[in-house]
Amino acid sequence: MSLLGNLFGRGSKPIFAKSHYIYTETIKSTPFMKKTAGSGLNMKRDIYYVVASVELGNTTTKCILTATNLTTSKTYLLDKTVKMTRDIRPPKEGEKVFGETVWEVELTKESVSEMVRDTILESLKKAHVDVEEDLDFVVRSTGVTAGFATPDEVGELIIALAKGCLEAGIPPRKMAPAMSKDNLRKDLQEESYLDQVMFDGAVVGVLPPTGRVVVANEMEGELVTAGIKVASNWTNVDFRNPCVSMDFGTTLAGRITNNDKPYARTIGNFCGLAGAISDSIIRGTEKVDKRGGAALDLYEKGIIKGADWKAAAKYATEIHEHVDIRKVPENRERFGTVPVDPKAAYEAGTTLIGCDVGKDGDEIPTLVKLGHEIFETSGIHTLFATLDHVSTNVVKRLIEEAFEEGVIEEGSMLGVTGRAGITGKKPELILDFSKDYFKETIFVSDALAMGSAMMARCMNSLGTPTKPVGGSQGGPCILGPRRKLQKK
Q: Model-level pTM greater than 0.85?
């Protein structure tokens, strides 16, 4: 924050990168001639790249359709269809259960495929998107790894996601990167740099941890980091390396990147439980489903109005006595119920920082009990205010742990996304703490979907050199350095 900003009190209000919607009909009818700032008339037609982000989470299952303007690098939403994962149908006779969500909802290949298929078809219909004519790419991701015991089970889930996409009519070629520019539709070929640089695994200028997978939901961390960078285009914040991302879905995901060039390295990963903490507390009200109930079932605008914030802060402190946040010990195979490989992480130079409730969630019943007591004593408004303080304290403790481990570089930005990190008064409370540690803090909705759009672009080398998303804060596009690196 600048000196003038401090003097006049600016910067104390949270910066939101909110999703902007656009109609499919609008992107199809973009005019060939338009005025651009400082250059008069532009004869080039805007090209949009349409991506479906298919997400199977512990609490929600989504299909989010995005359209990226490849001139401005701004990503819009076409549709967001959200279903509750708890509504996945029960296993039928003869079906094999290969895993379960963190809330013990049993999953079969058939039931997951059906849920994914129906969610995609509903989203495509609402957005008037034709699979063959309009849709360019599909990215699949899942946070449902906490209830899995083996890599084979995770593999079954990936297969089920792909099967659901195929059943929705998505051709396989739209789920894999193009081998050359010729494999892209004609108007996209002019926008692609596939003939100059290949996709080498780096997404938005950040390399993943080397070696084995170090945390089960690693892809989520990669996508939300990319998504926060993309979403920052709607703000005045240059959210590029070095940066820190945190995704507060049911489970915790996120990354810490350094400022190496041309590619930054992932030097930190977050893992464990996040929104599951709030969900556990809210179940104490007995107003939501005991197995699949979530805080978002009761959340509504104004829910914290009239809350006793002093009491809420006190309750949150009591709840945090059961929350374990620290560098993941090398001997743990799970942390916060999420499978981890700390030894592989530390050998690769990546620090794992986790959030747990007791040990692998064994004190969740205690949070449910505390939620009941708070609700009975102080009511629903103060209970939701308590959740705001609980999430803020999680962010605070994660940041303090990361700084203590020395893995956050000077000048880093912080980006927060996910339902348990950006709702209610959380952004104001988080900013009050984070402004002393970070250059800027931004809050983003739909970061995972935005990251899916970015990953699809990276896979097909659809960069925007004049509006770079990768690279360092204030720096140029890294296309040139990438060329040189790949020629070696």
A: yes
